[in-house]
Amino acid sequence: MTEYDVTLEWPDGRTETVAVDPRETVLEVALRQGIRLPYDCREGTCITCVGRVLAAGEDDTPDAEEAVDAADVFDYRRQPRALTERERADGYVLLCIAVPRDDCRVAVGPMVRAEVGDSPWS
Ligand code: FES
């Protein structure tokens, strides 16, 4: 089964790379490996686990001017109800229900959470 490398990046420069296959979500793999990520509902409704795609596939250099559409990189186990379509197009992704379709780099941490509004479901 194909695995994709998802590199999680914190604002302080720390990174962790997890190999995720289609049977698991990014959050599930990270937690199993002892990587601390924020989460709450694990159902795509509370927005606590949000990250932002920085780059995907061969494109290893993030371009601050150009957002990566999260739909190009991740499938969801269920509807990501906590995010608007615009937020998804701007690269925001709910890691609790997200399954990667490509190697990618994802910003995580409270700064990313602060960039998006509150979930209408929480
Ligand atoms: S943990 Fe609630 S949306 Fe992911």
TrEMBL record:
Q: Where in the numbering of this chain does the 2Fe-2S ferredoxin-type domain appear?
A: 4-112
Q: Where do the coiled-coil regions begin and end?
A: none
Keywords per UniProt? 2Fe-2S, Electron transport, Iron, Iron-sulfur, Metal-binding, Transport
List GO molecular-function terms, semicolon-separated.
Answer: 2 iron, 2 sulfur cluster binding; metal ion binding
- Which SUPFAM superfamilies does the entry link to? 2Fe-2S ferredoxin-like (SSF54292)
Presence of the UniProt keyword Electron transport in the record:
yes
Obligatory cofactor(s): [2Fe-2S] cluster
Could you tell me which InterPro entries the record lists for this protein?
2Fe-2S_ferredoxin-like_sf, 2Fe-2S_ferredoxin-type, Beta-grasp_dom_sf
Pfam entry (one): Fer2
Keyword Electron transport, does the record have it?
Answer: yes
The family classification in the record reads:
Belongs to the 2Fe2S plant-type ferredoxin family.
Identification of the protein by name = Ferredoxin
Q: Which organism is it from?
A: Natronobacterium texcoconense
